């Protein structure tokens, strides 16, 4: 990673919400556009960390983070990975239904729970249960699924923030079983809760306008060339 890479901001939950509000308000983006770019970024990051042939187990939550996961699953399948989506709670809104349908037409299995026998050889997990709007604690059925993933010792890449972590303070300190992913793909801008993350850390979601960055006093390194993701130095805080 070049030592000349500029510093990156870590933002609180309120600022993260404001970023989305501005993007889908005065800056003219639609939610499906943002979800598609975020999911593609997650798939690209996973492909940098986990070589083919591998089996991706994508954990999809009921909100926008889960939508990112469904998009990531589709792209990973197109990249040549085997894919299974674990999707415990499936909201009946048009966006989520269309993303689920897209996975189905690419023959991606969509399950309500983890399979009894996990493909532990050459498998990894894409954690897209919860995003920056999550507030602890993790509730059923997500808590038992996350515990199974931790117990399985499968490698994990989390989307935006590891599921179960507080968006501002990070992993729980009360002894709760929690994911410790090997990699993370922060979307738009990293959140305060991952400031001390020590695994491979990527930044994706290349849609922040200069005006938005200036308005919110956010600093992110410029993306190189036509890249949609970039790997951040360890603890690159501002």
From TrEMBL:
Which InterPro entries does the record match to this protein? YjeF_N_dom, YjeF_N_dom_sf, YJEFN_prot_NAXE-like
The entry's keywords: Isomerase, Metal-binding, NAD, NADP, Nucleotide-binding, Potassium
Q: Which residues form the YjeF N-terminal domain?
A: 16-226
What reaction(s) does this enzyme catalyze?
A: (6R)-NADHX = (6S)-NADHX; (6R)-NADPHX = (6S)-NADPHX
Its EC number is 5.1.99.6
Superkingdom classification of source: Eukaryota
Cellular component GO terms held in the UniProt record: mitochondrion
One of the record's GO molecular function terms: nucleotide binding
EC class, as a word, reads isomerase
Q: What is this protein called?
A: NAD(P)H-hydrate epimerase
Q: From what organism does this protein derive?
A: Pristionchus fissidentatus
């Amino acid at each position: 990673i070049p030592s000349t890479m500029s510093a990156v901001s870590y933002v609180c939950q309120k600022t993260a919400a404001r970023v989305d509000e501005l993007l889908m308000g005065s800056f003219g983006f639609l939610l499906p556009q943002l979800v598609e770019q975020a999911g593609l970024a997650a798939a690209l990051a996973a492909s940098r960390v986990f070589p083919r042939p591998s089996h991706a187990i994508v954990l999809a939550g009921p909100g926008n983070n889960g939508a990112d996961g469904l998009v990531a699953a589709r792209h990973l399948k197109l990249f040549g990975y085997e894919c299974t989506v674990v999707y415990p709670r499936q909201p009946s809104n048009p966006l989520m239904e269309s993303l689920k349908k897209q996975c189905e037409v690419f023959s991606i299995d969509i399950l309500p729970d983890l399979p009894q026998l996990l493909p532990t050889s050459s498998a990894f997990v894409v954690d897209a249960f919860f995003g920056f709007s999550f507030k602890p604690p993790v509730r059923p059925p997500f808590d038992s699924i996350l515990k199974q993933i931790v117990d399985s010792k499968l490698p994990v890449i989390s989307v935006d923030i590891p599921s179960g972590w507080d968006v501002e303070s990070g992993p729980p300190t009360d002894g709760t079983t929690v994911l410790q992913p090997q990699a993370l793909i922060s979307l738009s801008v990293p959140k305060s809760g991952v400031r001390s993350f020590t695994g491979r850390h990527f930044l994706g979601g290349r849609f922040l306008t200069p005006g938005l960055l200036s308005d919110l006093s956010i600093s992110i390194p410029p993306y190189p060339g036509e890249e949609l993701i970039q790997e951040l130095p360890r603890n690159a805080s501002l």
